[in-house]
Amino acid sequence: MASKSSMSLAIDPLITCRLCLAEFPRNEMYKLHGCQCLYCRDCVKEYLTVTISQGNVLAITCPDAMCVEHGLIDSDEIKAIVEKDAFKYYERIKLDKEVQLDPHRAFCPQVGCDTICEVCPSEGDNKESTPVRCPKCGLLFCSVCQTKWHDNQTCDEFMKHGRTDNIGIPFENEENATIKRCPLCHVPIERNDGCAQMMCQRCNHVFCWYCLASLDDDFLLRHYDKGPCKNKLGHTRASVIWHRTQVVGIFACFGVVLLVASPFLLLAAPCILCCKCKACDDDPEDVIV
């Protein structure tokens, strides 16, 4: 006679991994902690290993683009899945990027030092260069260009006159330059042609290529309707209108859904409250013996 465990395994349905499309028993699937999505263990390991190798370590999410929760995969979960070498690389790259994007921290540029130094940004503008002294080696350096501190000189002036190689990408804006620095994290970005709305791949900051103004909150691209950047977006007027129509349509649909759902939520609220109150009343810890 077959045991109960073998019978339960026989009737358990197979689950399809949405990455490799193969079928596995439930006990061979891995459930992500953040969103409860199921994948086979090999696919999760491969997904994390490839993502880490590409440097996308600041926020690793569920591999399913349609996942409603967009569950984050934290460091402890990654450590339990990937190989030791991959996890060490993940920790190192993650720390590097966190420090590079933090206006209050910077790595000491002295060769062989790499100490994390505290930066005190100037009042009102965190992007302005300030002197930073390394607590370990004592080097005084610039928080922006990561070179020896240049008092009474801009970063570009020091790069041109204070260094012998005279090589470097400007930190100040030059409208016709083909390579500029992200105004937030200062990473070099090259633009060959096309749209003037740029997004930094390191920090995801959205800005105008010509004047470096922030476009993070400019969903309708109104920045290119007036001022010195008027009509410089790089798209036809029809495509801009179509983009704005789509954005407005998304917000309108969301508003309609809320409007339709609100009466049902109001009707369901008393039932939900009653169920919770009843559950509290039925709690065995509250029963007096």
TrEMBL record:
Q: In what residue span(s) does the RING-type domain sit? A: 13-233
Identify its membrane topology class: Single-pass membrane protein
What's a Gene Ontology MF term here?
Answer: ubiquitin protein ligase activity
* Enzyme type, top EC level: transferase
Q: Which GO terms describe its cellular component?
A: mitochondrial membrane
Q: What is its main location?
A: cytoplasm
Q: Disulfide bond as a keyword?
A: no
Gene Ontology biological-process entries: apoptotic process; protein ubiquitination
Sorted UniProt keywords: Apoptosis, Cytoplasm, Membrane, Metal-binding, Mitochondrion, Repeat, Transferase, Transmembrane, Transmembrane helix, Ubl conjugation, Ubl conjugation pathway, Zinc, Zinc-finger
Report the domain of life of the source organism: Eukaryota
Q: Its annotated pathway? A: Protein modification; protein ubiquitination
Q: Which Pfam families match?
A: IBR, IBR_1
Which transformation does this protein catalyse, written as a reaction?
[E2 ubiquitin-conjugating enzyme]-S-ubiquitinyl-L-cysteine + [acceptor protein]-L-lysine = [E2 ubiquitin-conjugating enzyme]-L-cysteine + [acceptor protein]-N(6)-ubiquitinyl-L-lysine
**E.C. designation(s):** 2.3.2.31
Sequence intervals crossing the membrane:
247-269
What subcellular compartments does it reside in? Cytoplasm; Mitochondrion membrane
Q: What SMART domains does the record point to? A: IBR (SM00647)
Q: Ubl conjugation: is it a keyword of this entry?
A: yes
Question: Which family is it part of?
Answer: Belongs to the RBR family. RNF144 subfamily.
Q: Tell me, what does this protein do in biology?
A: E3 ubiquitin-protein ligase which accepts ubiquitin from E2 ubiquitin-conjugating enzymes UBE2L3 and UBE2L6 in the form of a thioester and then directly transfers the ubiquitin to targeted substrates such as LCMT2, thereby promoting their degradation. Induces apoptosis via a p53/TP53-dependent but caspase-independent mechanism. Plays a crucial role in maintaining the genomic stability by controlling the degradation of multiple proteins involved in mitotic progression and DNA damage. Regulates epithelial homeostasis by mediating degradation of CDKN1A and isoform 2 of TP63.
Under the subunit heading, UniProt states: Interacts with UBE2L3, UBE2L6 and LCMT2, as well as with BAX. Interacts with TBK1; this interaction inhibits TBK1 phosphorylation and 'Lys-63'-linked polyubiquitination.
Put simply, this protein is called E3 ubiquitin-protein ligase RNF144B
Give the organism the record lists. Answer: Ridgeia piscesae (Tubeworm)
